Amino acid sequence: MVKSLTLFISLLLLGGYTSAQNVDCSSKSVQDSLFQLYSEKAHKYSFLDDAWDMTYDSLLAICPNIAEAYQERGHPYVANGNYQKAFEYNNKAVELDPARWTGYRGYLNFVYTKNYEKAVVDFLEAERLTPNGFIQDHTYAFFTAISYMELGEYDKAETYFLKDIAQQKRGKGENDIHFNSLLYFGIMYYLMNEFDRAETYLRDCLQLYEQHPMANYYLALTLKVTGNSQKDIYFDKAKQYILEGYKINEPFTYVSFPRQISLYEVEKR
Amino acid sequence: MDTTVVANPKCNDKYLIYFYHVNTRYPVSTQSLLSESKAFLSKTGQKYTGSGYVTFRFMINCEGKMQRVRVMQVDDDYKPKHFDKRFVSDLNDYIHTLDRWETGLSAFKMENVNYIAYLSFRIKNGEVINVIH
Predict the structure, then answer these.
(1) CB pair distance less than 8 Å for A48 and B16
(2) Where are the domains positioned within chain A?
(3) How many structural domains does chain B have?
């Protein structure tokens, strides 16, 4: 069966669309095999190359119901800030396979367009479809929490930060919490003028990642507000670690994370 | 809006290079750009309207000069939209005040490359509420 499927797909690739009239696009195994073959072909090129687009367009001409192909087709537009096209393709992916792609679209709304209202809707739906799911190294609750924080809905943000931490602790409860969960929880308390709690979470973050430039910076800001002379130590550390190349350590994105800082802000103090 | 490009003999423009090829973005945070852009717009004395995104894509040449500006506009649902021309023009004036672009960058064994970057303004009821870069 596998051999005959491989042969059939090979013929498809050689013969093009006219040979593809009888492809069973409703079969998940056919979809997966086709996607793998065309994706390997597309990834031989840069996503900026027309060949990238043409490869996925060819695949979608054969089977217009392969969700992953729409997500890949949208990638160049995500990278280059074309929101209209980026979401046209990713909306189609969600429509075809919501359990798999709703969380990813939430991430696009969260980081690429900072549309926190839409991000919350997507992450809540993703949580409903795939409870306790993760995207880009974090729980859906993590992104939901930051989105609520950016919307100024701190009570909801707090609920979701706690959910994120609880989810990471599940099992024996011995796992380290992701340092950026602690970072953003601390930033939220800073924004709420709850400086003792902000300091606690930011120091906890630094216990796990001492060179975190943002944790050092936001701790310095917190100490500055509370009149603690240690603030300069942490401004200096933030500057030093930025210059040494330390970063927020999130998976690669083409744009900044919320409240990400640069040397410019650190030097202004 | 200046959509032209003036070739600079010092710059390498053999291939299209994007900001991610040279691992750069404007070296100021979103929060700072937001504050600065709001202050800039408030000085115009204009009252703006509309919600959505105005995105400027442009080339930064090897000496940090912005050229070949293109603008994309969508609403909050990422559908095409046109903001008031004066609003877009004022945002365009603002991005031309940015003078900290990294220069003298190298990519694909070429030195002093020009690169393409973008800045996007998220707008709610005529007010810039986020800058994305």
Answers:
(1) yes
(2) 1-96, 114-175, 178-269
(3) 1
> What count of other Cβ atoms lies within 10 Å of the Cβ of residue B19?
22
What would the DSSP string read from start to end of B77-131? TS-B----HHHHHHHHHHHTT------S--BTTBSSB-EEEEEEEEEETTEEEEE
Q: Does domain A114-175 have CATH number 1.25.40?
A: yes
Shortest CB distance from B53 goes to which of A83, A261, A262?
Answer: A83
Residue A230 forms contact with B (CB below 8 Å):
no
Residues of B in contact with A83 (CB under 8 A): 53, 55, 72, 74, 78, 120
Q: Which CATH superfamily is domain A178-269 in?
A: Tetratricopeptide repeat domain (1.25.40.10)
Tokens of B89: 């023009």
Give SS3 for A217.
helix
Q: Which domain holds residue B93?
A: 30-132
Q: Using CB atoms, which residue from B80, B100, B132 is nearest to A255?
A: B132
Closest residue in B to A76 (Cα–Cα): B18
In a domain, B4, yes or no: no
Q: What is the pLDDT along chain A (269 residues), one digit of tens a residue?
A: 444 455 455 545 544 444 556 899 999 999 999 999 999 999 999 999 999 999 999 999 999 999 999 999 999 999 999 999 999 999 999 999 999 999 999 999 999 999 999 999 999 999 999 999 999 999 999 999 999 999 999 999 999 999 999 999 987 777 889 999 999 999 999 999 999 999 999 999 999 999 999 999 999 999 999 999 999 999 999 999 999 999 999 999 999 999 999 999 999 98
CA distance A69 to chain B (A): 20
Nearest CB neighbour to B30, from listed A48, A81, A256: A256
Distance, in angstroms, between B31 CA and closest chain A CA?
7
CATH 1.20.120 fits A1-96, yes or no: no
DSSP-derived secondary structure letter, B18: B
- Rg of chain B in Å (alpha carbons): 15
Q: Is A87 on the interface with B (CB under 8 A)?
A: yes
Residues B78, A87: C-beta atoms closer than 8 Å: yes
Its ipTM equals 0.94
Asked if residue B6 is part of any domain, the answer here is: no
